[in-house]
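Page 42, continued from yesterday. The earlier attempt failed because a stray header line got pasted into the input along with the sequence. Redoing it now with the clean sequence only.
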Amino acid sequence: MIRNSLKKIWKSILKLSFAEKLLVVFLIVLPLQRLLTLEVSGFTLKLSYAIGLIMIVFFGIQILLRKNKLIFYWEEIILFIFAGLSLLTIIWSIDLKRSIIVTLWYCFMFAIFWVIRRLVKLKKMHFYLNIIFWLGIVSALFAIWQFITGSFDSLQGLSFLRDPYAKEVFGFPRVHSTFLEPLYFANFLIFPLFIGIYKTIKKINVLHSLALILMSTVLYLTLSRGAMVAFSFSVIAFLILYVILFKKYKKAILVFCLILISASAALGIAGIFSTDGTEVYLKQTSTNEVLDAIETKKVSKKQTNRDFTYTLAFEEFKKNPEGIGIGAFGALPEFERSQHNSRYQIVNNLYLEILVEQGIAGLVIFCAFLVLVFLRFFSFLKKRDLLGVVMTFAILTLFIQYNTFSNLGIIYIWVFIGLYLGYSEKINSKITSKIKLK
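This time it went through. Structure tokens are written below.
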């Protein structure tokens, strides 16, 4: 079964155009957030960035040669306005250099999203989603390898675990696969997991069931509280809606049971092996995960507690309603110690971070973007398009998790949004407003 699936993927790749093959390579290297990277002046260059840049240049050349039309959709216009406001905040930023870098970085992410959306063809959509599904499986399998090897002193060198997530900290390894942190790994797994849910509902078989169990178990083993809560909430909401729309109770119950078993097993393992059980878990998840778990023992609670960063962000917004400058939160004097340790504090809540850095205007503009994105959901509901509904819940889960971290410069999130809106545009062009520039 697995062999046949991989053969189908390979045959499909051979039939693709150059641009589509480039997209496939880009998707395949997305999880490589720590492997095959290069450190340059404090920044980590990744394969996905290089290939993404090639795609942007290639698509730009296609437009100049008039092989593609220059089209902007309303979501993109809102993003351009958001980027423009980010650029404007540089003028009064409390950290000019960082604001310039973050603005350019966000523009690069938006450009990736813009290109991905246009490369999606309806007949190839399931093919691209299959690649992401298998990437989720492979990443999860590597995480299991991390957990097993990281559990034994003699094998820890083979685990590829960062020191803050080794078993000495929590009593068990906290997996993060090929990503920098468990939080980011869990964030990536959300989209493949929802594809797994879709596949399990469409066709119940051993592969789909095992894949769903594997990825769900690993997501909960990351102990990323934001991801776990967001995923659990979204799955329950989706399954209730699925039963209402399609009246298929048995499939909904099966998916729920598979995920419940996975969550129970993962959290049970964490509870058994943890040196201080629930106390260690709750203490860790209440602190800023950007700071290494080992070092948090040496830093005051004031500097690491999310409650403190949330309160500080809101207080700073009241003082500066226009914002303190994009990406500049970590430059506040309260985080001077973190800056000396080459760390840059973030709010750990995207919406609060936008509010404090780009002001009320920035938050309103970004919320307008989200409203336009999620308006597609009603069309999917009307058409009873299961794939569209599933992808909507996947994107929704990502933005629910954004209540516990704040980084818009994550490349795979914009890839997922691009695929989602690309599919929506192709499946239901009547609801899509666009502006053509000749």
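Notes: Residues 284-304, 430-438 have pLDDT under 50 and may be disordered.
Reminder to self: strip header lines before submitting.
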